[in-house]
Amino acid sequence: MSKFPSYIQEVDGELWLTEDERDNMKLSYRVKDIIFAEQSPFQHVMILDTYDFGRTLVLDGVVQTTSVDGYIYNEMISHIPMTLHPNPKTVLIIGGGDCGVAKEVTKYDQVEHIDMVEIDKFVVDVSLKYLPEVSGNLSDERVNFIYTDGVKFVQELENKYDVIIIDSSDPVGPAEQLFSEEFYQNLHKALKPDGVMVCQSQSPAFHMDVTKQTYQRINNLFPITSIYTAVVPTYPGGLWSFTLGSKKYEPKNLGEKWQDKSTKYVNQGIVESCFVLPEFMKNNLK
Ligand code: SAM
Hints:
Elements: E1 8-11, E2 14-22, E3 25-39, E4 44-50, E5 54-59, E6 62-66, H1 70-84, E7 90-95, H2 100-105, E8 113-118, H3 121-130, H4 132-135, E9 143-147, H5 150-153, E10 161-167, H6 181-190, E11 191-200, H7 208-219, E12 224-231, E13 239-246, H8 268-273, H9 279-285
The structure holds S-adenosylmethionine (SAM).
The site of S-adenosylmethionine has 23 residues, from strand 6, strand 7, strand 8 and helix 5.
């Protein structure tokens, strides 16, 4: 029996991580070192040191974030809703175990309280220890870590948060219900009357069906719904989508509201232009 999980292969003395993306595609990364590998109660958790992307968090064989490009996703999913809401004081993050989103949200002085609901404490502990480039060794007393299923957590909430960020893994296993209609209804209830929510809505290149379904589900509930994109090299397809639901504020001329947060990817031009969609996405969302 191999000493490695099936998605790590030894080829000519070199280690490779291979992600099975789809039936017809695999993505492989050359691995320098396995820093951590253990089964948690929910998933297989690994931190790898890879040649091109540095420290990399892998859950059940799927790359979640890396020290080289993780900031793109984490900044985009955090700063767009945080800029849209004029005064975000209470924030809920669901998922987000690598702590990259919480790190970005703590850059807002007006935020008083952040509930971070992650199903797997293992991911948080390992990311704080081995992935400081992403987690920033987060230690901010406004962050309240809650280890439970985000689906259950939002069931009984009403009128509580200004901003909700769903930083989930792909819609399989524990994250599947984080893409369901009922979950979005509960998020809508959990938001204040002028609240804003955002979720990652997958690759428009490979999973336009999921992107479209997410958009439609959120659009059925919120008066203002918008999709924006960013290019994340380690996510299959590169182009990644985020769907925003807002009860009151429109992301119009949003660049004008941007305030510098010492970011590496987001700037005024990105905030302004990220809602411009390629033609195939516009056509598919009709
Ligand atoms: N940025 C990443 C991506 O798009 O691949 C996702 C980052 S984050 C690591 C995703 C987190 O969601 C994981 O740590 C996972 O444990 C958590 N998660 C999955 N299902 C969950 C649920 N039902 N409730 C709360 N957290 C969940």
